[in-house]
Design brief:
Blueprint lengths: L13 H21 L6 H8 L3 H7 L3 H24 L5 H18 L1 H10 L3 H27 L8 H22 L5 H16 L8
Helix pairs in contact: 1-2, 1-4, 1-6, 4-5, 4-7, 5-7, 5-8, 5-9, 6-8, 7-8, 8-9
């Protein structure tokens, strides 16, 4: 039995990657502004200036396009977090830098946050969303566990604490995406201190 390779299995040239990225960027804006279901593939290809055949060379469906947008966004978020904590050894400092990076990234990508909110309501995307949440919570829990092992904070359930931290940053991102208001530095500072105080608790360690 022959196996047909999916579009995602193909190795893209630089030009091909640029065209794929253009489709994803335009679709992200359209989905965020008009909604996923009302946006047709024909509108996306017309906006980029290519034919439908080009679209289906890269994506088997509109659903797969959105999944690729969401997966790329998660990779980009984690790359930004990793850059933010590079060179930092202190686990609490890593946690702080990670929270700041997450909120800053959310400010810069409100359209993606709106797509994330939508994807949680659709069963065909929910599995990927749950997987993404597990990944980001595990990233945060790792720093909290390191802080516990170093005696910087009291022992506890690192995953529960990480879930609470993610909940704060996720809710702020959602509110920003809904209202269109800017998350300014004072909001980020408040969120960071709130999360760190919750993690550090009554420890003698003072959050920066």
């Amino acid at each position: 039995m022959s196996v047909t390779s999916s579009p995602n299995d193909r190795t893209l040239t630089t030009r091909g990657k640029d065209r794929r990225d253009a489709l994803m960027a335009f679709a992200t804006t359209q989905f965020a502004e008009k909604g996923f279901h009302p946006t047709a593939v024909s509108e996306i290809v017309d906006g980029v200036g290519v034919g439908k055949g080009v679209f289906y060379w890269y994506f088997s469906s509109k659903d797969e396009l959105l999944l690729n947008i969401l997966r790329d966004a998660l990779r980009d978020l984690r790359r930004n977090q990793n850059r933010a904590i590079r060179g930092a050894d202190d686990p609490i400092q890593c946690l702080e830098l990670g929270i700041r990076s997450t909120l800053t990234w959310s400010i810069e990508h409100p359209e993606v946050i709106r797509l994330v909110m939508f994807a949680w309501t659709e069963e065909q995307f929910a599995k990927d969303m749950r997987r993404g949440r597990r990944i980001v919570i595990s990233d945060t829990a790792r720093h909290i566990s390191r802080a516990m092992d170093a005696g910087l904070i009291e022992q506890g359930d690192a995953r529960v604490m990480a879930t609470a931290v993610r909940g704060v940053s996720d809710e702020l991102a959602r509110q920003f995406a809904i209202s269109g208001d800017l998350l300014d530095d004072s909001v980020i500072e408040t969120a960071v201190r709130f999360c760190l105080r919750g993690v550090v608790g009554d420890s003698t360690r003072t959050p920066t």
